[in-house]
Structure formats: C-alpha cells, structure tokens
# Entry
Amino acid sequence: MTRPVSDPIGLEVRWDRLAAATDEAASTMLRTAFSTIIRESNDYTVVLMDREGRTMAESRAGIPAFAALMSSLTALVLERFPAEEWQDGDCVITNDPWIATGHLPDIAMITPVFHRGRLVAYAGTVAHSPDIGGTPSLRATELISEGILIPPLRLFRAGRVDEGVKGLLLANVRLADQVWGDLEAQAAAHAVCRRRAQEFLADFDEPDFEEFAAQVHAVTDAAMRAAVRELPDGVHRSTVDADGVEERPTHIACAVTVSGDEVEIDYTGSSPQVPFSVNSTLNYTRAYSMYPLKILLDPSTRTNWGSYRAVRVTAPQGTIVNPTFPAPVVARHLTGHLLSCAVYQALAPVLPDRVIADSGGAPALRVRFDGVDDTGRPFSLMLFANAGMGASMERDGLSTTAFPTNSGSGSIEALETASPLRFRRKELRAGSGGRGRRRGGLGQDIEVHNPTSRPVRMVLLGDREQHPALGLAGGEPGAPAQVVLDSGERVPLKSISQLAPGASVVISFPGGGGFGKPEEREPELLLADEMAGYTLRSPVTARPARGNGLEEAER
# Structure
C-alpha cells in the first residue's frame, strides 16, 4: 500500500525534474534526427518508466497519446525479454502494430537504466520512420504488404549494434540513411534519459525509483478518479460516421459507462474490420480513447501510468477498432482519431460546458510526396498540416490546430529544403469553420507545385470528404476536406496519384464544428469574423474525383 505523500511540494519538484529529463531527451532527438517527420512534425514520444515498465514522466511535446501506450508496450516487450536478461547498453526495438503504436512506420525503442549495478528503470521512445518498405499501394489487404514487420528484437547488445538486425532492417527500406539516422537519434535520446535518471537517484540519494513511482502513480490515479466521481453514473452513448472506403463507410458506436470512480468505453456495434488500411488496433484505440478523456476530465495533472488506471477500453475482436492480425493498418489514424469525437459526443449531455464539437483534424489529413529531382536524387516528404478544432460552449474553435494528435506542421522552408517541391500558398481557409454561437476553427489551404521535369507520386490519406466535422448544441458542421489539381480535377482523399511536371495541387484542410445556434452569435463577433475574412465562402469549382479513390494512377 502506498503511504500518503508527506511532502507534495518536494514530490512535484522531483517529478518536474524527471519530466525535464524527458524534454531534454526529446530536444536531443529533434536536433539529431535526419527526417523532417521527427524534426519538423513532432511525430514521436519520450518517456521514463519504472522497473515494471510503468511510465513515471513523459515529454511534454510529441504525441501524448503515444505516451499512453508505452506502459502496455513495455509490458509486452518484458514478456519476451524478462528483466533479469537485460544488460546495460541493451536496446530493443519493435513496430508490431499490435504491440506498439498501431502501424509499421512507428518504431518503438526500449532501453534499460542501471544504477549501482541494478536495473532500476527503462527509457522508451517512439518515432515515425521516414520509410518502412512495403508496396506503395492503398489496396493492401494484409499487413505484410505495408512494410517490414519488426517483432521485439535487440538492436544493441551491451552497447554494440547487432549488425544482423541492422542489416536486415536497412535492406528492406528505401531511405536507409534517413531510417538509420533517426534510429540513432532515438538512441541519443535514450542516452540522455539514462544519464539524467542516474543523476536523479544520486542527487536524492535513492537506490531506485520504487517509492517515487508509487507516489506519482498514486497522485495521478487519485486525481483522475476524483474527476470521474463528479460524473453521474450511467451509460452515455453516441455514434460517429465517416467516409470509410469503397462503399464501406466507417461507423463508430460508443458507450461510455460511468460507475463510481471508474469509466468503461466500449465500441460494440462499430463497423467490422475491412481489407483496407484504416483498421485501428486495440492499443491505438485505447490510446485515442483514454487521452481525450484525460484532458476532458483532468487537464491540469501531469500524465503517467496512473492517469489511466480508472479507464477501461473494450471493443469486439474483428471490428475496425480491434482488428485481428494480419489486417492492414497503415492509415489507422483515419479511424482512431475519430474516437475523441465519439467520446465527447457521448458525454456532451452531462458535460456541455467542457466538451468540444468535432474537430476537422479528427482524423488528420496526411499527404506524402515521393519522387526523384532533376539531379537524380530521390526524395520522400510527408506533409503534416492541421485543420480546425471544434468550438466549445464558451470559445471559438482554434484554427489550424492539431487535435486529438499533437503533431506539428513544420516550417515550409524545411520542407522545401528537403525536396524540390515549392509551396506557393499556405493560408487560412475562409468560411471553413462551422457556424454557431461559437464558431468552429478554420482549416487551411496549401498549394504545392512540382517544378521538376518528372512526375511526383502523391499519396493522400484522409477522410471527412463526405462527412464533415459535426457541430454540437445546434452548431453547424465545418467545411469538408478536398484536394484539387490546377486542372480543376478533384483527387480522392484515399488515393495514389501523380502530380505532373509543372502542375500544382491545392489541399484544403477541413474546419471544425460550431457550438450553439448560429443566430445566437453576438453581432460584434459576426462583424469581426466578416472583417477578418473568416466567414467568406470561397467555393472551388472542381471536376469530380476519379473513381473510388483506391486505385493507383501510374502515369
């Protein structure tokens, strides 16, 4: 039994120091990473865990939902590699979607922390790799087509690279230098975590993290349970629909059951899994259910393993939110990001002053450009950009702000440096926020030009083309997403096509839903919106999208 915290101020000081160590490690990874996905888009997480693999401190940048996965991930790694088998300098990696963060491009890394000859903690990171091999097609019907699957393997043994594992990995990717450079950046972050954790124990004259971990876990668990107890007991339900694929729209059925100081989120009734890449593994489903609930109920307490002990997430096997192996999952965010909308809509009747309407970035629209420049140099670029957030009862939604993920958009200068592409326009999308007493956040328009003499492959992974972000309490939906070539032709949001030499494309990110009836918006706010150009509709005349959006255009 954990004894009460006798010195809460001292505990907070120590906790903040350990969190600062993860932030420093994250900065190290950002400064040493080779790819713009980590460096510019913040698609990573860094955590420090106790000897049982339970997170104690998490970096305050990166993807917070990834941090929510690290404890269950490490527990599964420890089943394969028990604690007594670890040596100082070991490093285990995996990208198994049913163990790690839900799809193959994310590589998780776990390393031990030793102090005075004893294993006392683990450092953990996840980062999105710039390439993971596989066949460039959205028609993959099984996981193995999407890239190389890495079961938990030792990449380093006692500080030395396992050349066999390294060679096997790099032989199966196209951008070997970038992939290895990013893995070394992760390893550098782990070295910072290890050093700072050892200094922490030495400075506070502690033999291990057991007492500290027990106390910070008790603090976060108590805070979350206290927040849950404020909710009325009962079952709160919602449904969310999205475009899905090939006449199989995505349907999410959500039941949030509150009982005392515990919550269960159940997705029984959701769509069955599909032979396309939008399936969300259960661990990813859990992360994107628990994290939105955490920031709704207890936004001020720092997060760690204890934050989620009061929350249980379930879904029937074989559904789009709990697919069975070897379902394709590379675009799992197109389902997983929708879960925040489902949870908030379910709780809207009991927490109307705290929930937000649907966000245009739930799910996020991702665009990948691949090709060869005119010097013969290959390039691959992932465009991370943000849509509008949903409005709340009291505030307009934030424009061009990521939610429920925390990925950044990166600088245009960095993206242009890493590729021959030119970004002609990046601006707020007028009229994209849903009307309401409080307006939804605006999306954005980004125009990308191909100045080379060669075609560039463009991979679109998006949704909300037919199902925009919905409003709440009478608020109107935001504008849907669309992608339009300079020829006027619309490109489906789930497609692989070619951006011809000299051609341009405008990617229009959706807006967030409004909150409350539009006629209740204050006149001075309507005038301010009109003067700023936020409410001016700019319809795009575009030819219909080609086909069903899943074919490859190899021209």
Remarks:
- Residues 237 and 255 are 4 Å apart (CA to CA).
- Residues 537-543, 546-555 have pLDDT under 50 and may be disordered.
